[in-house]
Design brief:
This protein is of the alpha+beta class and 332 residues long. The chain folds into three domains: 7-60, Arc Repressor Mutant, subunit A, CATH 1.10.10.10; 67-273, Bira Bifunctional Protein, Domain 2 (BirA Bifunctional Protein, domain 2); 280-327, SH3 type barrels. It has ten helices and 14 strands. It has a seven-stranded mixed sheet, sandwiched between helices. It has a five-stranded antiparallel sheet with strand order 13-12-11-10-14. The protein is globular. The two termini are 41 Å apart. The mean pLDDT is 92. It binds biotinyl-5-AMP. Biotinyl-5-AMP binds at residues 91-93, 115, 118-122, 124-127, 135-137, 178-179, 186, 189-191, 207-209, 211, 223, 227.
């Protein structure tokens, strides 16, 4: 059995028909429990046939985020580094930084089935259930000053939103700076971390979490109203490795455009997918800023109109004044 694999999957893989009784006996559970677990695997996109008198048979690949499966959908031009796969990891950002410190080339990508200590911004947690979503971290080595690094979050957020749009009839919306929403609910987040000397970036880790096949029950109760996945929103499971390939392809292309023309060259694409334009928001701070979002500028700052003047916001938490209904009105 491969490290950390689901033992039911291991019992089915490469073995043809297996009787329910034999599986139940080998796993030490009841036949009813085997059936329930088969159902759960099916919800996650595994193809398992069940026939009375014969048992179960795995007919469709197990949809792991294996490098070869991702590469079938990914032909990078710039981000040529290795793809590293882990079944379980604390945080893909942590491992990617370790590899970057040891000299990993630009484009080195860590993907994992599950994170035990997935990170959000400002010490927050990224909920990372096993084998249903995407957790990826990409090593970048941009020749830009540390102050410009937040723009990379926008580049990655754009790539995520575009990859989601490429994946069906979704209408993703970006919530500046780093959230991607479907129907007003968060489907993805980006965490950009860097190591730098005084004025030189050593490397940047762009960490991307996208909820792909998570069911509502995979989220803790406090997130069930705020979070969604492509499968919840679209009604069918997504092939995770193929999605990952599409996402990395979008990131590779956006990265090339960014290196050539800066964020200005991507701004119109960002604006097209930006969900906050025209929305009344409050930006935290002392004092907080209340106004209406007018878009982003060429440097990626949020433009907020307050009392007739446009203010540039380079960082801060955005709260919608009018609940998330405003964003739900989008076609999502
Ligand atoms: C983010 O933080 O949105 C950045 C998330 C980045 C996660 C990726 S996964 C791969 C890589 N490795 C890591 O360790 N991290 C990156 P922030 O804006 O702080 O949002 C965090 C908040 O989103 C939490 O406080 C929750 O409210 C909510 N949240 C947590 N997990 C979620 C999930 N799976 N889906 C939707 N919302 C979630």
């Amino acid at each position: 059995m491969k490290e950390g694999r689901d033992d039911l999957l291991a019992a089915l893989e490469g073995r043809g028909w297996q009787s329910g009784a034999a599986i139940a006996a080998s796993l030490g559970v009841s036949r009813a429990a085997v059936w329930k677990r088969v159902e759960r695997l099916r919800e996650r996109g595994y193809g398992i046939e069940a026939v009375a008198g014969r048992g179960y048979r795995l007919v469709r690949d197990s949809d792991l985020l294996l490098p070869d499966a991702i590469r079938k959908h990914y032909r990078p031009t710039l981000l040529r580094g290795e793809i590293v796969h882990r079944t379980t990891i604390d945080s893909t950002n942590r491992l990617a930084a370790e590899l970057a410190r040891a000299g990993a080339e630009e484009g080195t990508t860590v993907v994992a089935e599950q994170q035990t200590a997935g990170r959000g911004r400002l010490g927050r947690t990224w909920v990372s259930p096993a084998s249903v979503n995407l957790y990826a971290s990409i090593v970048l080595r941009p020749g830009i000053p540390p102050l410009d690094v937040p723009r990379l979050t926008l580049v990655a957020g754009l790539a995520v939103a575009e990859a989601i749009r490429d994946s069906g009839s979704f209408a993703p919306r970006i919530k500046w700076p780093n959230d991607v929403l479907l129907g007003g609910r968060k489907v993805a987040g980006v965490l950009t971390e860097l190591e730098a000397e005084a004025d030189r970036v050593r490397f940047v880790i762009v960490g991307i979490g996208v909820n792909l096949n998570a069911a509502r029950a995979d989220f803790p109760p406090e997130l069930r109203r705020k979070a969604t996945s492509l499968a919840i929103a679209g009604g069918t499971p997504v092939a995770r490795a193929a999605f990952t390939g599409r996402l990395l392809t979008r990131l590779d292309a956006a990265w090339a455009t960014f290196l050539e023309g800066g964020f200005a060259a991507l701004r119109h694409r960002y604006d097209e997918l930006h969900g906050l334009v025209g929305v009344a928001v409050t930006i935290d701070g002392a004092p907080p800023l209340a106004g209406t979002v007018r878009g982003v500028d060429d440097g990626g700052a949020l433009l907020v109109e307050a009392e007739g003047t446009i203010r540039r916001v380079v960082s801060g938490e955005v709260t919608l004044r009018d609940t998330y209904r405003a964003l739900r009105r989008g076609r999502a």
